[in-house]
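Researcher: Let's try something more involved. This one mixes different molecule types, so please make sure each is placed in the same coordinate frame as the others.
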Amino acid sequence: MSLFQEAALVAGKDLRIEARAKVIGQQIVPFGLIVLLLFAFALDPDRGVLQRVAPGLFWITVLLALLLGVSRSFAVEAENGARDALRMSGLDGSSIFLGKASALAVELLVFEALLTVGVVVLFDVRLASLPPLVVGTVFATVGLAATGTLYGVLAAGIRARETLVPVLLLPVVAPVLLGATRSWESSIDGVPGDAWPWVALLGIFAVLFVGIGMLAFGPLLEES
Amino acid sequence: MSAPGTDMVSDADPRSGERLMAPVARRIVGVLALVTLAALVIVGLWVAPPDEFQGDAQRLMYIHVPAAWLAYLAFGVTAVSSALYLWPRTRSLVWDRVAGASAELGVVFTALCLLLGSLWGRPVWGVWWAWDARLVTTAVLFFLYLGYLALRRVPATLDVRAKRCAIAALIAFIDVPIVHFSVTWWRTLHQEATVFNPELDAEIHGTMALALWIGVLAFTLLYVYLLDLRYRLEVLDEDRDERELEAAIADRVQGGPPRETVGASS
Amino acid sequence: MTDVGYVIAGWVITAVVLAVYWLSILWRIRRGERSEP
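Model: All components are placed in one shared frame. Result:
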């Protein structure tokens, strides 16, 4: 089987598990909306503050959901010796990585789509220029999913992984937060043209960390 | 006991490479470090004149800049040794120990760098912190390697830990320029007051430059000394963990179900 | 605090931190070597 066929196999497995468990829809999306609500409690809803900081709040919420998603992605491998099965399956490490990262990316994108509705409704945000927004979001999500999957497998066998992964992952994805928020701001409020350089940064980050993931996932899986 | 110095022998003999340098060498470096540090105190706090704009606060630069330099040196060493560990032909636990020891030193110096920068910023800029590119990147750097240290503390066999940490170190290392670039870009787009103007890049002459160079030298010597010391501690910790593990296994093998004995074992 | 206060604070804290760190390593090494069989 080719790299992509194997990856599709793994991605399909993860997505099918998610479809049955419905964790994204029933838990993570509500979590995201609650966080948006809490931001409104924490900040001042009356003075246009929320509208201005909406992109930042959106992407922080996405990061929080990423942590949950990564945790979930590897929790399903922790049961019933699934990780051992994965190791012995003969699938290439890079394919497993691509598969899991793709599944995570899809789940995140669904989450983000619904969260966007929340942001538009609750924070009164107008999405003026869609192309840089959408492309930027996709690149950012790919970068986040790749990095998340990488740290997920790194911490896979560790008992303290729930607290360790955030500490490891969040500093690394700081540039994604930066780029995604800036590109959203430019798409919403400012000059849409300004967004594209940030989108390019996000693209580079995504490519880089997909590459690193493909290299490192196999060896890390062996050790977990 | 093996010969001092790095040892490229395979992991079959993890006791090889017990030190990085001969004890005599370490002592010499230590004394030199102490001497240059003393020189730094004298030149930095007394001989060098106060800056015409920053006043005496300039004197903090004589330790802040060396600390920053050292942080980058230490993390560079961590990255290189991590790569050397991962590369099959040079794989040796020596590199893992160097990586770990150097990272810890790096975190200490990064923390000092941030603290000193803050103490400098208050009188000179009027604020304890500023969202300037260099500061933010340094803060992210701090957290990246703090995470690395947390990873090192996770119980695991030596080779598993080494591989895991080596990969984490390299990812962190690759991330730093990305962070720096993106934050610099961000801050130039939001060019705030020239309050945060590059005094740090200002031309420094005479005794002030001397003080800085003494500082860099002193801290570098200190780093080498501390690295060798910390490396030794890594070796001892590994030995102790190995002995504890063997003892626990031996207990388990002999013990069977726990017995009530009058004289409790261990 | 005058400027000098910040300077002194910085240098003193640096000296203390480095000294404590150095001594802690020394102490742990001594302890490790003592417990070696």
